Amino acid sequence: MPRITTELSFADRLGTCKARWGIGRMEYMVPPGLYAVGTPTPDDPVVVTANYKMSYDMVRSSLAGHNTWLLVLETFGINVWCAAGKGTFGTDELEKRVDSVGLATVVNHRCLLLPILGAPGVAAHEVQKRTGFTVRYATIRAMDLPSYLDNDMVTTPEMQELTFTLRERLVLIPVELVLALKSIGLIGGTIFLAAFLMGGEAAGTKAIIAWLGAVFAGIVVGPLLLPWLPGRSFAIKGGIAGLGWSFVWYLLAGGAAWSVPVSLAAFLALPAVSAFYTLNFTGCSTYTSRSGVKKEMRLALPAMGAVLVVSLVLVLAGRFL
Amino acid sequence: MKGYRYLSGVTTLELRPEDCVGCGRCLEVCPHRVFALDGTKARIIDLDACMECGACAKNCPAAAITVDSGVGCASGLINEWLQERKLRRVGSGCCS
Ligand code: SF4
Ligand code: SF4
What we know:
The complex is a heterodimer.
Chain A: E1 3-4, H1 10-20, E2 33-37, E3 46-50, H2 53-62, E4 68-73, H3 80-86, H4 91-100, H5 103-106, E5 111-114, H6 124-131, E6 134-137, H7 145-150, H8 157-160, H9 166-224, H10 234-252, H11 260-280, H12 290-320
Helix pairs in contact in A: 4-6, 9-10, 9-11, 10-11, 11-12
Chain B: E1 14-15, H1 25-29, E2 35-38, E3 41-44, H2 55-59, E4 65-66, H3 74-84
Antiparallel strand pairs in B: 1-4, 2-3
The complex binds iron/sulfur cluster (2 copies).
């Protein structure tokens, strides 16, 4: 039985950082199986987690000072929440892992502690039927595990409620940026080229800064200011962040000298770009529903497309009329 | 969820009280306190807070809950639509 340390080394922290920035996320796995945290006896609790290095690191470091068993499921390097959605953190894998490590011979009790966010993938009653182990959904956050264990395994309302704090939003942004990098570069390049052909290098540079600012407003500013931006729709929140950027850009780039059609186009197109990127942040949010996002997209995507076309027509018209 | 509210009137969550056996599992797994238990029956107390994660439906031993759960991000949905129209290969999702 591998015994694991609850101290995170520098390499672990560096790895976490890299994984957050999307570097080598897939290779970043922990072998599935049963691990000993401290010196657990057959009466000590079994905590289940995913073989995503960040989940695993968070769980083992927060379990410092508690003797527990840690059952790591094969989720192919994906975190508990996403893996549960895909079903890899699921009933079948849990059953398989409980069998393959011979859990029933290692511990005396018949209880598994699961992260609450694993519940979309696991049918607790099925697990009980197939393995004889009862599933208890313990906490959402690994950092609450110690107080849960010390508190006679009672889940307080705080341990069970999802949050979306500034910090939680902040750590998601690097991943979003890295994922969007390719499209930002491609579209940015096209915009530069088009503006360059129409108005020379200065126009190209301006266009690309305007684009990058709108993307930044949508990916970084929108999500950070999420609870304070008006409206419920992510597209509207993003659009407002983009409108803010349009004003800033208007002042920075000497917008007073712009022609009316170009100014209009800037104030239409930039918010549309930001709106799109903030709408995409629904994938990271902890409270948006699939049906809600669908509804938003059915309204927002055509609107964004129309706005972009109108902006383009304005710019062209302003130039040739 | 405190400080946040998404669009109202969109969730596909449904609870059939006549099938409920009052085990309380849905209260245990829901991260948004959508349910309450009245004696031996679960009841929806905050429908619009539901994020359609599917945890309650999956864990209800009486199959009293249904919800259309799945990918909920914009790029995931775009991929799904493209796949349905066979414009893109399966396998690229946002949650990876
Ligand atoms: S999980 Fe199902 S049976 Fe149990 S309380 Fe909820 S609705 Fe009722
Ligand atoms: S689908 Fe998820 S958020 Fe909605 S009620 Fe069920 S457990 Fe709660």
